[in-house]
Queue: 2 jobs
Job 1
Amino acid sequence: RGDGLSPLACPEAELWFGSLQKSLLTVFLSVTGGLTWDQPLRCIAGMHKFYGAVFFVSVSLCLLALLNIINGFFVDFAIQAAKTDREYQVAEILEKKDKYTRELRRVFNFMDENASNDITLAEFLSCAEHPELQDYMASLGLNIEFGHEVFNLLDVDGDGKIHLEEFLLGLLRFRGPATALDVATLRFEVNQLR
């Protein structure tokens, strides 16, 4: 060959590094596990230490790049899954709120006996005594057994009638357990009365 390197130091040198294509195939097989890369490394390092170092660095960089690409796919998938999960949660909350509002509209229309688009105290108390309505409202997370008190809480403007908007907003607020914000608001209002 004229370069002073002895291909006889490793009989497989021609098989693994005989041409550019064979060298690239050897690196590819070493990276992908098709060939244990210590064998070609010993062979080429036996010819010259510098070639062994170049082969080692080449295979190491290829492995690191491959791992980086695979890691990138997993990270991207996790980010997309988290984003989709958040969007799904928001959509689910909005869907539940919409369904809840539709149910409350049906209840409002049932309680509005004279179809005047508002509920009087007499209408509210009359309907609040129905066990079916009490059970239905309880299934929505609302307790209307204390009719007079609930009516006063829902009648925000104090005109003696509950309008649809007051009914919806009031019952949406009353739904579920009290939050820390609700308790803090109540404390603030009590302190204002003192």
Job 2
Amino acid sequence: KAGAIPPLVNFLESKEKYRQQCAVVALAILTRDSPANSKAAGSARAIDALMKHKDSPIPEARDEVAIIVRNIFMEDDDYRDQFVETGGVSFFIKQLNAAGDSEPEAQVDAIHSLTLLMDVDGAGEINEDIVDQLNKAGVDAKLQGMEDTDHDGLKEAIGELRDMLRGKAHVSKLPGREWKPRSSLPMPIQHIHYNSDATQRRVRNRTRTSVPNVCMQRSTGRHDVHLRRFLP
């Protein structure tokens, strides 16, 4: 109501990296469980701005971008079409491929993103054009290679998406809109400083299941990254 979302969308296109990353964090929080905020972000053309960050070198930032665009397109199929037209399908496929075997929760997130993307009007009808794109990209083969897992939630998500891709399932039978992504609510925050790629990977591996959010901060003489860990 205070009109905070349009300025945040503008921050996404700022030349200053710390503003871009803080805008991603804020939009992830504001659009979570809020249809009104998600629609406001869509009206402010957030999808176009967010998709400019789909190749961010920071994995946690890409994760948050995926969550935000998902929150937006679930509220209106026009936003879904806009997301697809700006390379959304390939972005979600990259998210699936980037989630390592040691990160089952990230894999579940990526699979559910693809599941929700196929839903038409929230009515359970599968978008066959998106199914065709996923099949051409070899997603079913990727999922088949992930089936040897002890993670029950991941195994179930894989089976559901594979059934959809093979025309054996209807979205209304899936967890779809009842499913919630890993929490990014602003609970106690732990700041972790890291400078090297190796340290960044170690921090990410330790904190992945709590959905870290990354906020680039100003620094003098060096480019520190403050990993803001939102505890569930």
